[in-house]
Amino acid sequence: MKNETNNKPNNKYILPNPSDYIKNGNLLKSIKACQLDAFISLTNKNSVTNISFEDYPNFLVYGIQRSGKSNFIENIIFNILLKSSPLENKLIIIDTKRLEYASFKRIPHLICPIIFDYQKAVIALAKVINIINARYDILSKNNFKDIEKYNSMSDQSNTTKLSKLFIIIDDLVDLVEYSKSEIVEKISVIIQKGRQVGVYTIVATSNISRDLINISFINNFSNRICFRAYSERDSKLLLNKPGAEKLNEYEYYLNSSLNVHDGKYKSYKHDDESINNLINFVSNQKIKIDDAIVLEEPNDYIKTNIEEYDDSLYNDVVDFAISTGKISASLIQRRFRIGFSRAARIIDLLEEKGIIGPQVGSKPREVLIKNNDDILSKDNNDPYEEKNNSNVEQINKNYESSKIILIIIGIIILSIMRYLFYKN
């Protein structure tokens, strides 16, 4: 793809030409004029407003499934790839669904592979806290209060700048279900301490129920993006007003501590071809990231396997499956308002217990039981006891067969002895 000749090289890295990847005229004009290297584009029908992460350092992005959350975050990544090199802005992406951001796996801005695993997500968040603490030490040693002043000094003294680091998490619900206290604590620390040292957090969630995410955690986020909500209650919790429950796809409200740009917007959707072309352009440039992190898996983080997995919703899901006669992860998600990963684990558990049949294409699973008594009968049938009973039966059969054979042999021997006796 052709690029304009005036694109500046950035330490052997060439920035993409926005004209090659943006088809909307208003958005293109706004982004080309924007002097920021990382920003969010708030788009309306006829206007675009770009806001910086220095002013909006953290975001909680909420909405029901397929409301536009992931598209909104994709646009943030898209802007970062367009306007900055991997030396300026770096990314950590935690994608618990394993689907939404897989296309970005080759971009050089990542300091570690896209994280799909819960254990590695916990490790990554812990390492981000270490990065934050190390940066505070650097600022303190050089008598600076924030990253902007330090980097300004770096320009003059020809020392290495501190890059911005963006932590993107989608979906928070799945992580919280894995390890609630640990995840919430680490994210809270990152939000509270990250801004001054250039670490920014964007967290998406499809559920803000009280049993998963408490109010104090939500209050850590000074900026909230609310796509279509499940209920008026959720809208009031995020925005302090109703209305989000009536939004259409890609529409959202911004609620922030600054109150400057708060209002209703509609997220722009780039076509797949533009996204893939941009990813190919930035990925084909070879540039080394010195501060890449390694995600090891110590024994402390090893989670129990599916055979040992249990879930507080299990009995409720069983009742729901029996009543509907069919079940799938998406049905569980909608009915119980939980994340995909948790729903998928419950499906695996139901199959393991023999309550539902195997996966057949994209159809819901067949429920193999009619009532809870069937479950009890299944549970009462101890496979080890059945095996032992089977072995006893087989032994008894073998004994009976051996007994008959011995009788026949005895009769034959007796007949031979009688024959020999009378012959003599």
Following the backbone from N to C, one meets helices and strands in this order, namely HEEEHEHHEHHEHEHEEHHEHHEHH
Which structural class do you get from the secondary structure elements? alpha/beta
* Approximate shape: elongated
Report the end-to-end length measured between terminal Cα atoms.
113 Å
Strand order of the largest sheet: 4-5-6-3-7-8-9
Work out the number of β strands.
11
Low-confidence stretches: 1-10, 297-309, 382-388
Round the Cα radius of gyration to an integer and report it. 31 Å
**How many helix segments?**
14
Task: Explain what the structure shows.
The protein has 14 helices and eleven strands. The N terminus is likely disordered. 44% of the residues lie in helices and 13% in strands. The protein has 424 residues and is an alpha/beta fold.
Give the SSE layout.
Elements lengths: L24 H9 L5 E5 L4 E5 L5 E5 L6 H15 L5 E7 L22 H24 L5 H11 L6 E7 L1 H7 L1 H15 L4 E7 L9 H4 L4 E4 L5 H8 L11 E6 L6 E4 L5 H12 L30 H11 L1 E2 L1 H8 L3 H13 L12 E2 L5 H9 L2 H41 L1
Parallel strand pairs: 3-6, 3-7, 4-5, 5-6
Antiparallel strand pairs: 1-2, 7-8, 8-9, 10-11
Features:
alpha/beta; 14 helices; disordered N terminus; elongated; seven-stranded mixed β-sheet; single chain; 424 residues; two-stranded antiparallel sheet
Report a brief summary of the structure.
With 424 residues, the protein is of the alpha/beta class.
